[in-house]
Amino acid sequence: MNFPRRLDCGSRRACALAALVVLGLLAVGAAPASKTKTAPSPLTWKAGVASVLVTPTNLLWMAGYAARKKPAEGKVQELFAKALALQDEQGQKLVIVTMDLIGVGQPLHHRLAERVQRELGLPPQFLLLNASHTHSGPALRTTPVTAKDLENERTRSAYAYTQQLESNLFQVISEALARLEPARLTWHRAQCGFAMNRRLPSPTGYRNSPNPDGPVDHEVPVLRVEVAGGVLRALLFGYACHNTCLGFYNYCGDYAGYAQEYVQANRTNCIALFLQGCAADQNPYPRGTGVVPGLTDLDLARQHGRTLANAVEMANLTPQREVHGPLRAAYEEVALDYAKPRPAHPYPVQVIQFGPDLTLVALGSEVVVDYSLRLKKELAGQAAVWIVGYANDYSGYIPSLRVLKEGGYEAQAGWADTVEERIVGKVHELYGRLR
């Protein structure tokens, strides 16, 4: 089966008198409210959530840093894949999968989406795969390997792990769909401040260094899933920041892993899921052992995780916005050209709408923060807008036109200067099609 390119699916005596009248009306109107408790909204959704361990059982080479010279030495935290399944009143289903891994290889996404459609009946536009981009997880090998490739133990182990990962992802999707129960969805957001732009201008170009004047997106969107009795079943939250607190040789979910752990800690049967945002040019600061006296990089990962978890709790304390259906989704792969002649890359763009209340845009690979800031502004309206990166593909950095012209680390993939308009244009096209 070929993976489809397009899937739609406001005199003094007079003033004083007026003021008294207003105060009297307010007093009359306020009294009943203090005695009347607002009834909870009906459970118009169905939701199911599941989690599976994806920590390697052996010590594999790790992903994220090209300078690594040896395999992993152990683990300090388990790695998970989690799935949130939702169903609207019309019976349309959506599954969002999050992973404590470096990225989602496009071949893996295609194969998994095809199997999920074939065996579970879920169209590919209603399946979203997102990776946290932790640099403390195993390296993956999603492309086919030859017999000669398999002679290399490093390649053979990575390929075997990735094959098992595909099975684990199908398992967790199946389990989430099997656990659907009546639910209500609400949404709100908060702010978190440890991410900072890492593109610092210098006389010799842009350096990978803290830039307090660079663009950032500190929003922490949170989707709450409650079931009968007001029981919290799942919290889906996001942030735009590289998972690069750590530079050691141990498996760990980094700050995002700890944030999920802390959010779940005192909530029985509630699963926290993290969606990575447009974090390509965003780093967690401070970072690195010795940068803060007496603190290691692991201490800082935990500290940033606690900060993000606190932001999730702040969002929980705000008056919640109801999220209604129906679910609508569209997916298409747009051809991104390179500056030098070579085959274009089929880049995935996905738009999911939760009725009139929330629009979720999922972009592939490592997207710079300019995309989030631009799209949230251009799509602003009645519905809240949530932009994520690292979804359904992992093929390098995706710069904005600004970053491409400035140069630097995030601009080295060699894209043509049409890259931003191709992606943003496709988002608008799919968004308009769904509306």
How many H/I helical runs? 8
* SSE pattern: EHEEEEHEHEEEEEEEHEEHEEEEEHEEHH
Classify the helix fraction into a percent range: 25-40%
Distance between the termini: 29 Å
> How would the global form be characterised?
globular
* Strand residue percentage: 25-35%
Main sheet attributes: strand count, strand direction, barrel closure? 9 strands, mixed
Give me the Rg, rounded: 23 Å
Count of DSSP strands: 22
Q: Uncertain spans, ≥5 residues at pLDDT below 50?
A: 10-36
Average pLDDT works out at: 92
Alpha-beta classification: alpha+beta
- The total domain count is 1
Topology:
Layout: E1 6-7, H1 12-35, E2 45-53, E3 74-75, E4 80-87, E5 93-99, H2 106-120, E6 127-131, H3 153-178, E7 181-191, E8 195-197, E9 199-202, E10 205-208, E11 219-227, E12 231-239, E13 250-251, H4 254-264, E14 271-276, E15 282-284, H5 297-317, E16 321-323, E17 327-336, E18 345-354, E19 358-363, E20 366-367, H6 369-378, E21 384-388, E22 397-398, H7 401-406, H8 419-434
Parallel strand pairs: 3-13, 5-6, 12-14, 19-21, 20-22
Antiparallel strand pairs: 1-17, 2-4, 2-7, 4-5, 7-11, 7-16, 8-15, 9-10, 11-12, 17-18, 18-19
Helix pairs in contact: 2-3, 4-5
Please describe what this structure looks like.
- Strands 2, 4, 5, 6, 7, 11, 12, 14 and 16 form a 9-stranded mixed β-sheet that branches. A 5-stranded mixed β-sheet has the order 1-17-18-19-21, covered by helices on one side. Strands 3-13 form a two-stranded parallel sheet.
- The protein has 8 helices and 22 strands.
- Helix content is 30%, strand content 28%.
- Helix 4 (254-264) packs across helix 5.
- The longest helix has 26 residues, at 153-178.
- The two termini are 29 Å apart.
- It is of the alpha+beta class and 435 residues long.
